[in-house]
Recover the amino acids of this structure.
């Protein structure tokens, strides 16, 4: 099929293409604006900074840095453990969040070869997310000396609970654009699929193109509405004459 044939296939069912595009785009808009719950992420940063003592003064050497980096993998698991999250639930009952729920919403990351850890918490309210991630960070700092027998955690910055956070999962305009593009692809695919399984001829031009023979005659379809018009036209012709009544 050439470009002309493709355009003819689309034109035959343009209404289907338009319908699919409108329906999917509207549904994407409804989902983006009405059916998606906004989620907010708050972050806090800590640094693992264990140091050595030399002549009574704290020093940092390459060995200390590598030890701190290796400890981060353990600290990632400790933050998500019940030893920390149970303490958070006990000390902050007003959060009304269970340790299991906190474990599912918290994530801990660290850049490669970095001593800095980023603690993130996701919630439907940025203010709550900020308060909870700060609480987890502080409890973690408090408990590390008793768990690891070393006090090497320093909080770099806490989340600002008064800041206006931005949703991390909602972008209605982007959702609508994606829905619009997908609707075009889906509608065109549906149109070509229907055309592939449709073996009937819709016009004389299609038949002539398929058989490579000229059309000698064609029989038009007669609808009921056409027959009614013909009957009405005949009645009007019968009564077209003008008659005069003789006067005595």
């Amino acid at each position: 099929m050439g470009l002309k044939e493709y355009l003819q296939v689309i034109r035959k069912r343009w209404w289907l293409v338009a319908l699919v595009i409108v329906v999917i785009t509207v549904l994407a808009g409804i989902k983006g604006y009405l059916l998606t719950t906004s989620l907010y992420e708050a972050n806090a940063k800590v640094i693992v900074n264990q140091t050595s003592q030399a002549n009574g003064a704290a020093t940092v050497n390459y060995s200390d840095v590598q030890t701190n980096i290796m400890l981060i993998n353990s600290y990632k698991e400790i933050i998500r453990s019940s030893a920390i999250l149970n303490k958070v639930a006990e000390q902050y009952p007003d959060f009304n969040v269970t340790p299991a729920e906190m474990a599912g919403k918290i994530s801990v990351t660290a850049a490669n070869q970095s001593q800095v850890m980023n603690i993130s918490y996701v919630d439907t309210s940025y203010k709550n997310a900020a308060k909870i991630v700060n609480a987890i960070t502080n409890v973690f700092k408090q408990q590390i000396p008793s768990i690891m027998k070393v006090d090497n955690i320093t909080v770099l910055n806490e989340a600002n609970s008064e800041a206006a956070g931005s949703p991390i999962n909602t972008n209605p305009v982007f959702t609508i654009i994606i829905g619009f593009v997908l609707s075009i692809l889906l509608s065109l695919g549906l149109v070509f699929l229907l055309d592939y399984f449709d073996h009937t001829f819709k016009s004389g031009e299609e038949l002539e193109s398929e058989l490579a023979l000229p059309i000698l005659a064609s029989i038009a379809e007669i609808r009921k509405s056409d027959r009614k018009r013909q009957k009405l036209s005949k009645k009007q012709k019968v009564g077209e004459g003008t008659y005069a009544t003789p006067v005595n």
Notes: The longest strand covers residues 40-48. The mean pLDDT is 83. Strands lie at 40-48, 52-54, 57-59, 106-110, 116-123, 153-157.
